[in-house]
Design goal:
It contains ten helices and seven strands. The chain has 246 residues and is of the alpha/beta class. It has a seven-stranded mixed β-sheet, with helices on both faces.
Length: 246
Amino acid sequence: MPVNWKSCHTISVVLPALNEEKNIYASVSKILYSPHVYEVIVVDGGSEDRTVELAQRAGATVLVHDKPYYAGGGRGGQIKAGIMQASGDVVAVVHADTGVPSKLFSRMITALNSRPSVIGGAVGCRFKNGAGFKLRIIEFLNDARAIFFSISFGDQVQFFRREPVVLYDMFPDMPLMEDVEFSIRMNSFGGQVFLLGRACVSARRWQRLGLKNSIMIISLFMQYLIKRLFNNHLDTSLFYNKYYSS
């Protein structure tokens, strides 16, 4: 029988970052003015620029989580460390180069309170800087995957009730595919809701690598799903190396 979780009122935003001095100040400042946002926790992966300084100046709580990717580091480890520090009713994971309209945070609260058995969800995203036709196709496919299969990627602003995620240790500290794995876990533990919206994400990697990036992401995604059928505790270090060596 589905569990009806308690009402939500406050949001902790967890923002994993690495060398994001160009984006971090504006991102934190804007988020802190949003309704229901109680705190912004920037989890720094060992930046060599002014990311930490600027995040603190903007009003964020900063954690340094610079473990190696193969030992609980990487973005998954950063996010999990932020979740454990958070104290809001809801946690929203926002990448440093993603712009989230303030009203979307209010919609997260409304969606979860109107569906007390749902544990979390994700948000529709659009690429910044006048993305062309090819990237519009990617946007459509991303939305379709989240709507029809309830599997979201990290840049789709995953949000969730903090209490059950912490209580049942649901977020994986994997170096890559942590977002996919977490979506699957949410689906088996109360389900998700998808909010159509216009959070703006950076197209910098897509523009730099083009079709190669699309092929790589699809390939890694499918490999992960297939391997997961036979092993629920996958080491994604090899996926990490392949993705970030591009």
